[in-house]
């Protein structure tokens, strides 16, 4: 049960993150910008975690300046820079291109983490599994429409978002061994917001009144802030501790599956046989990654 629980939570978190694409799209259509959505959802998440930390006795700073710099990097790579590159990519390239590139994060994360941590390297079967899952992601996202419209700037931004999450997965490994999950998550939100100050100075209007006046927008924003950000980031950082960064990150492959299923339920988007085949490839690839564990050296 102790081994099963982290896998279950990882699946739930990724499923929720898959839903956020639809929620974000509704907010964009409602009149908010990508940056405004990010800032508002992180403000909500940070205030909730700050209130919880104050009630339990807050620890403000890390134990060393190196760890504090690491926390700052986590806030940038896993917060502001990730969301800005991902959302900006869709202004220059198709949603399909963005989804495919960002969802291939586990491939790059596995390579980067394996270069720094020998115990996290994939063996032959695990490498085969993660490549199989990546092919499944491409089939799921394209959903039978095998046409890509290349856009150098947009695709580069999407790749930048992919690499941001890979570096986030790498940087969280050392601090996760020394600090509580809630402390790390609160730092991610704080530095994510802090790094957005230049944008706030240039664009001080966050459209808060627009959100308050439209209950549907408010409900979507609260879901993004309370559930998808606050609860899911805490849960995900806990999963990274229990499963290791490589195995946990492979669950990102399921992100487009849950997005398309939710879009099918809410937006009446079609599901084809290619989606089903791709989902099977993802699940079997993840099975190989999770079961064919390499023997660790003493």
Produce the secondary structure layout.
Blueprint (H helix, E strand, L loop, with lengths): L3 H27 L3 H23 L8 H25 L5 H9 L1 H12 L7 H19 L9 H25 L4 H14 L2 H6 L5 H6 L1 H29 L1 H5 L5 H12 L6 H19 L7
Helix pairs in contact: 1-11, 1-13, 2-3, 2-8, 2-11, 3-7, 3-8, 4-6, 4-7, 5-7, 6-14, 7-11, 8-11
| Gyration radius over CA | 19 Å
Number of helices: 14
Average pLDDT: 84
Shape summary: globular
Number of strands: 0
Find the structural class using helix and strand composition: mainly alpha
What is the strand content? under 5%
Query: How far is it from the N-terminal to the C-terminal residue, by CA?
Result: 26 Å
User: Which percent bin holds the helix content?
Assistant: over 70%
Low-confidence stretches: 294-298
Helix and strand sequence: HHHHHHHHHHHHHH
- Biggest sheet statistics: none
Task: Give an overview of the whole structure.
With 298 residues, the chain is mainly alpha-helical. It is built from 14 helices and no strands. It has helices at residues 4-30, 34-56, 65-89, 95-103, 105-116, 124-142, 152-176, 181-194, 197-202, 208-213, 215-243, 245-249, 255-266, 273-291. Helix 8 packs across helix 11. It is globular.
Main features:
0% strand, globular, mainly alpha, 298 residues
How is this structure best summarized?
By secondary structure, the chain is an all-alpha fold.
């Amino acid at each position: 049960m102790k081994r099963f629980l982290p896998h279950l939570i990882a699946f739930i978190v990724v499923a929720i993150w898959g839903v956020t694409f639809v929620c974000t799209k509704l907010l964009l259509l409602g009149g908010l910008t990508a940056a405004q959505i990010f800032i508002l959802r992180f403000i909500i998440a940070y205030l909730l975690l700050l209130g919880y930390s104050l009630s339990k006795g807050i620890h403000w700073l890390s134990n060393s300046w190196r760890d504090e710099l690491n926390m700052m990097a986590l806030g940038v790579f896993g917060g502001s820079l990730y969301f800005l590159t991902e959302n900006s990519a869709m202004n220059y390239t198709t949603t399909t291109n963005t989804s495919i590139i960002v969802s291939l994060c586990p491939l790059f994360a596995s390579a980067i983490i394996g270069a720094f941590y020998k115990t996290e390297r994939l063996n032959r079967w695990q490498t085969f599994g993660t490549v199989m899952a990546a092919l499944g992601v491409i089939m799921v996202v394209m959903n039978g429409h095998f046409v890509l419209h290349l856009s150098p700037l947009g695709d580069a931004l999407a790749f930048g978002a992919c690499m941001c999450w890979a570096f986030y997965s790498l940087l969280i490994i050392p601090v996760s061994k020394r600090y509580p999950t809630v402390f790390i998550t609160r730092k991610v939100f704080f530095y994510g917001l802090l790094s957005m100050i230049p944008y706030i100075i240039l664009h001080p209007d966050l459209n808060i009144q627009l959100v308050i006046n439209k209950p549907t927008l408010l409900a979507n924003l609260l879901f993004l802030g309370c559930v998808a950000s606050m609860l899911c980031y805490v849960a995900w950082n806990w999963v990274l501790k229990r499963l290791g960064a490589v195995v946990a990150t492979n669950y990102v492959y399921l992100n487009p599956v849950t997005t398309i299923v939710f879009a099918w339920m809410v937006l009446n988007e079609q599901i084809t046989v290619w989606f089903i085949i791709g989902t099977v490839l993802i699940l079997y690839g993840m099975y190989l990654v999770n079961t064919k564990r390499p023997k660790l050296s003493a």
